[in-house]
Amino acid sequence: MILIGGGSRSGKSNAALALLHSAGSRRGFIATAEAYDDQMRERIARHRTERDRSIVTWEEPLAVAERIEAEGGCYDAIVVDCLTLWLSNLMIAGDRDIEAESRRLVDVAANAKANIILVTNEVGCGIVPENALARRFSDAAGRLNQMAAACAAEVRWMIFGIGLKLK
Question: 130 — phi, psi (to 5°)?
């Protein structure tokens, strides 16, 4: 499992696609974004055009671990883009055990037959959020990212389109 983190628009998705293309011919992509507004619909459409037709794409906002379990044996590598959108989807869905679902996703990804490339945003480099929901999200994202980094064979940090190997 490889974890690629960084800020918004830092080059994470492009780095993940480059790794995916070098991982073999059977490639999968789990897209976690949901189109709640025009800006997100535009972003999703742009990301779709960045993936070539050889990549099988699943739009999976919640059941990412289940998708990896179901498809992991059939692919050389699968990108999950991204963990923080998945986390926000869980929080919006309500009444979910965020810690348990985060642990499950990381365990499944770390033990998958396919190479799993996880993309995540680092949201903890700014100020502490003003409202309780944003603080809860920031804390949960930090815990998820630490959990994934601890289990990953490799961790990369993206900044200005340049990747730094941390682990």
Answer: -75, -35
Q: Where are the alpha helices (DSSP H) in the chain?
A: 12-21, 38-50, 64-71, 83-93, 98-110, 132-151
Read off the tokens for 96.
């979910």
Q: What is the mean pLDDT of the chain?
A: 93
Q: Which of 47, 96, 104, 143 is catalytic?
A: 47
Residue 47 annotated as catalytic: yes
pLDDT in tens, 118-133: 999 999 888 888 899 9
- Angstrom CA distances, 165 to 1, 5, 146, 156, stand at 14, 10, 16, 5
SS (H, E, C) 53-96: CCEEEEECCCCHHHHHHHHHHHCCEEEEECHHHHHHHHHHHCCC
Read off the tokens for 117.
């490339």
Q: Where are the domains of the chain?
A: 2-165
Q: Which pLDDT score, from 0 to 100, does residue 11 have?
A: 93
Whole-angstrom distance, CA of residue 130 vs CA of residue 108 = 34
From the options 3.40.50.1000, 3.40.1380.10, 3.40.50.300, 3.40.50.150, give the CATH code of 2-165: 3.40.50.300
